[in-house]
Amino acid sequence: MTSRRVLVLGGGGREHALAAAIARSPLCAALFVAPGNAGTPGERIQLDPCDTAAVVAACRQHDITLVVVGPEAPLAVGVVDALQREGVDVFGPTRNLARLESSKAFTRELATSLGLASPRSASFAKGEVESAVRWCTSAEHPIVVKRSGLAAGKGVVVPENLHQALAAVRTFIGEDDVVIEERLFGAEVSLISLCDGTRSQPFPLVQDHKRRHEGDLGPNTGGMGAYGPVDPGITAAELDAQFVRPVVEYFARQSTPYVGAMFAGIMLTERGPRLLEFNCRFGDPETQVLLQLLDDDVLEVIVNCVSGRLERPLRIAARHSLGVVVAAHGYPDDVRRGDIVAALPSDAANVAVFHAGTERVAGKVVTAGGRVLTIVGSGATLADARTAAYAAVGDVRIDGSGYRRDIGWRARAAELRSYSQAGVSIDEGSEAVALMRRSVESTMTPAVLRGVGAFGGSIDVSHLKSFDAPVLVASTDGVGTKVELAARTRRLRGVGIDIVNHCINDVLVQRAKPLFFLDYVASSKLSAPDTAEVVAGMADACVAAGCVLIGGETAEMPGVYRDGAFDIAGTLVGVAERARLLPRTDIVAGDVLLGLASSGPHTNGYSYLRAVLEWLPLDVVPEGWDRSLLDALLEPHRSYLSVLDAVVEGDDVKALVHVTGGGLPENLPRVLPDGLGVDVVRGSWPVPPLFRFVRDISAFDEMELHRTLNMGIGMVVVTGRDTVDAVRAAIPDTVWEIGRIVDAHTGVRFV
User: How much is the pTM?
Assistant: First the structure.
């Protein structure tokens, strides 16, 4: 293959990554960048990439034989057309084909004609404000408002209400055509394919972070980071065949071959993949990440594209890559320029540093744009790549600069498809109960009424003369891995409340009132103030429940627990009248399930929650929330004693179900007679923000999600169809009818 004198057109991080990769190719006889930045290799040519005459003149002057176009704006003004007329090979589509990016209205029309799965949408010409407003007002679904033309990644508004939508329409339509689309929900992936006019070959899928702030909050930007490859359950090849190849083949049939990179933004919805948009070039910061995964000579691949010989898939290394964008003060709004880049990390085997908004002034590198640098880490796993990237980001010194601390955070949720992958197996727990049952039952006497498998152990103590036949009901439990979060953040009092209230609810479901509680606190090294804070929380919960904290055990166990960690467990004993123990035996098909709200995850699912949210800072207040993620996660486990006190004194409750580990699917069957099942009605209660947040990013199916988390229901009351109103009236709290007992199946079904 003949060597080439190459010009990379553009000056951002994407162009730096392309230039660096091309410079390493033995096919590169000479490298030029126009205009480049303070970090790009090769000879810099100071020109405007959109000045087609200047670009053509530079190619003549430097005998350039191949131009690689980075940004979208030169494509839209026809730089490819001008260079082709001069006989220069160009990697990039012509002006007519670049309308895929420069006109969203054109793209939507083409997607419809080719049958590409897309959101419902409508296009409006500049100035057609009344028609656009009518469409927004009559839309029966959430919408997104987009400028049809180029907007540097910032021409999209995702309104929260109709007022915001109409404001965006009125702003955009005065300057450009507007496309209004159905708002889609799901994971978004970036698919970048290389095209030679008749064929396309995709890179691995990556995900970027468009919002400025952690938790995917704040204004849209050109991109604050990206990572890959991602595995959302569908391959890049499958998405390329569905969305990119039909477009390439269509243009080939029109005798207007598409040569260059085609970037499809795709939303993976519950109804399947949907096309958000096309870009006609490499993405930024996706390119910085993807080129670290490419095991091919990038210049050879580009030459094969422009020669129509892209005949085999790209060679991709078995590693991961993650890029973090360092932005200038004020980005993306009032960007400050001229700050000195006082320190930079060095390129290494697992770290690459790409300049974007930088320039050299008086021998110093200074900021010259909004996105200043992209720091890319690589490694055998995504966690390794992330560690390398953020370690290098820590070496950057630019006054007023900022970056997101959570790049890649959604990947943790996508990796976990069962609770066992987070380190906890519900099935293994059930197996342990089964294996223990024989040993436990060998110790039982006729006085033991309920043991292993029930919410709490029960023993007949008829000598309590104030009862006709008093029964002691006991519950022993622990707080679980929620204590790690409490220990790490020094929020200790709440987990003391957690253990008492969990046990209170476990005896309450047998209609027992709490008598006394004993605690167990263990750690590697005792801290008197910390232990006192935990026990104070226990005391708070005991006082509220009218029971006594009579003692317990505090253990110091060096070598068993890691430094700073601790564990909490406890036992609560209550008393109930034997004749009124729950559950009753007269539960029948047609009985109703009434749900009471949980106060949060309670004490279950934290191994999953900590894994999913590991890379998201805990001080983030997600969009639409009134408190931080940490506050939501550490909300104490609710006691239902006071709100159910009146109703359990009556005769209308057939059973109570405390929704603990295993969620509704595992706990509801524990009170049912043989042969009966439960239908839980989807959408019958409002899912709280934390659970909606986790559900939206989760890769769990519905049943696994409900087995792992309570999803907003912490206690269930089972009552007859004719007593529902009386039970509701006796509970001073919001109650939802969430399902019914059925004889059509056993277990739990969501309907």
Answer: 0.85
